[in-house]
Specification:
It contains eight helices and no strands. It has 181 residues and is mostly helical. The chain has one domain. α4 packs parallel to α8, α5 runs parallel beside α8 and α6 runs antiparallel to α8.
Length: 181
């Protein structure tokens, strides 16, 4: 939904008459291609035969529950989500660094997000694996979400340090509000 809104507003004011329809068609095709594997049904026999085959480091130990096709799709989507979630903090960190200021940013927001990510990461780490599943297999199945929540926690800590470092810096006239509060 957010990507749709992003592309809608990004291409809304383009001068070309064809750019918005073409981008809408491309976005629709991309969405269709991404969701088609999720909509396909597989027979139970085929689902049992499919096993995640990869590096030894990321493989599931013998006797443990292997990845199904649906879990692999979820893992890939979770990994993409995790990368996007991690990348979402980098522009703010860079802007704060270049301005040497955190003015206009709500620290309460970052504090609550940090608390939420800490609790979410702990809930995944403290949950018991399913019956017949080892802890290593459980962590592997939940790795994208752990990396996302705990990685963003680290980046939010960087922003918190920026709040502390830049709190006493005088703001230049360029960054002062135009109208008095």
């Amino acid at each position: 939904m957010m990507l749709t809104l992003y592309f809608h507003y990004k291409f809304k004011k383009r001068p070309s008459l064809l750019s918005a329809p073409i981008n809408s068609v491309l976005l629709f095709i991309l969405g269709t291609v991404c969701t088609m594997p999720l909509l396909r049904g597989t027979s139970p026999v085929a689902a049992q035969r499919e096993v995640f085959r990869g590096r030894t480091l990321l493989s599931v130990e013998p006797g443990n529950k292997p990845f199904t096709k649906q879990e692999i799709i979820g893992f890939v989507i979770g990994s993409i989500s995790s990368v996007l979630y991690l990348l979402s903090r980098l522009p703010q960190i860079r802007t704060n660094f270049l301005r040497k200021s955190t003015q206009g940013i709500s620290y309460s927001l970052f504090a609550l997000v940090m608390l939420g990510n800490t609790l979410y990461g702990l809930s995944v780490l403290l949950k018991n694996p399913e019956v017949g599943q080892s802890e290593g297999s459980y962590l592997l199945h939940h790795l994208p979400w752990l990396v996302g929540s705990l990685g963003v926690l680290l980046l939010d800590t960087v922003i918190s340090v920026q709040f502390l470092m830049y709190r006493n810096h005088p703001t230049s006239s360029e960054h002062e509000p135009l109208l008095p509060s």
